[in-house]
Specification:
With 298 residues, the protein is of the alpha/beta class. Strands 1, 2, 3, 4, 5, 6, 7, 8 and 9 form a nine-stranded mixed beta sheet that branches. Helix 4 crosses helix 9, helix 7 packs across helix 9 and helix 8 runs antiparallel to helix 9. The longest helix has 23 residues. The chain is globular, with a radius of gyration of 19 Å.
């Protein structure tokens, strides 16, 4: 078996109910169909409690797949543990509810190989467009990147990014009250160390999405992380954090107007209000310096 230069680490960061392994199946199917043209390894990292529920056929779905278990259920700890289990030069880290298009690995790997000064490449994430709900939430949450060409960026995607392994080894996740904040602080530390990030818009992946509870959970913890990170940097005020978020959301809605129809606009307005109210709730928790509410994100 030929040695691989790239590994994919799959970690589940959201458990909204009992584990069905359906998300993992979809990702493994998508990985098996990649057009990368070279071998790659796939490592699934799970909490030990899931050991007894792993389907017998799961690791047959994509070549060179294996699974390891860790005694910490936090997604940040699982990702860091996975890095220690691979040795390839390049490592893609996926959240298991995100399904890449067949060119994702090739595009992100090419981007890093062609840009030796960069340490991380992120792709573009959407919720899909087959329902009005998905179209509207794609606009609100993800649309701010619509129309952006390949370029240097200040952000690293939590959903899926390709790294040089050395970056992951020297920058493990921060220990924080929220997985969102942990990811954010790690990206900030990487940037402070001079690591540069690239955005490849053609590297697409579709993120699974739940109902209103998912929106509230996501927005609440995003707000908590936004304000805590700003405070740690001694930077943006509460008003500045709110203004930045509103501008991002509105930019997404404007940029994504071709992704939803006029008939979707009433739903878009309702979802924008729900998302905004949840965001304010997260800000208030951070302002009180309280521990964030329980989350399905781990």
């Amino acid at each position: 078996m030929a040695d691989a230069q790239v590994s994919v680490i799959l970690v589940s960061d959201y458990e909204g109910g009992s584990k069905t392994w359906e998300n993992e199946r979809l990702v493994l199917e998508a990985l098996a169909a990649q057009d990368i043209g070279e071998p790659f390894d796939v490592l699934m990292v799970e909490h030990g409690a899931a050991r007894a529920t792993v389907p017998a056929d799961l690791l047959t779905m994509c070549p060179r797949s294996r699974i390891v278990f860790h005694d910490d259920e936090r997604s940040a700890a699982l990702k860091d543990f996975g890095v220690g289990q691979v040795s390839t030069e390049f490592v893609a880290v996926f959240e298991s509810d995100c399904v890449p298009t067949r060119s994702w690995l090739r595009l992100t790997l090419d981007a890093l190989r062609q840009r030796p000064a960069f340490g991380v490449v992120s792709g573009y994430t959407t919720y899909g467009g087959d329902t009005a709900y998905k179209r509207c939430m794609s606009a609100i949450d993800r649309g701010f990147l619509d129309g952006v060409v390949g370029a240097e960026t200040r952000h690293v995607s939590n959903n899926g990014a390709m790294y040089r392994r050395g970056v992951l080894v020297t920058h493990p996740h921060a220990d924080a009250a929220s997985p969102f904040l942990s990811n954010r602080l790690r990206s900030t530390a990487m940037a402070a160390a001079g690591i540069r990030f690239w955005f490849e818009p053609n590297a697409l992946m579709t993120h699974a999405i739940g109902g209103l509870g998912f929106i509230r959970d996501f927005r609440y913890h995003t707000a908590y992380s936004d304000l805590k990170e700003a405070a740690m940097r001694g930077g943006m005020s509460v008003g500045g954090v709110i203004r930045k978020r509103v501008l991002w959301d509105l930019r997404g809605i404007r940029s994504s107007r071709h992704r939803y129809s006029v008939m979707d606009i009433p739903l878009l307005a309702v979802l924008f209000v729900v998302a905004s109210a949840s965001y304010v709730s997260g800000l208030l928790t951070a302002l009180r310096d309280s521990r964030p509410a329980e989350s399905s994100y781990r």
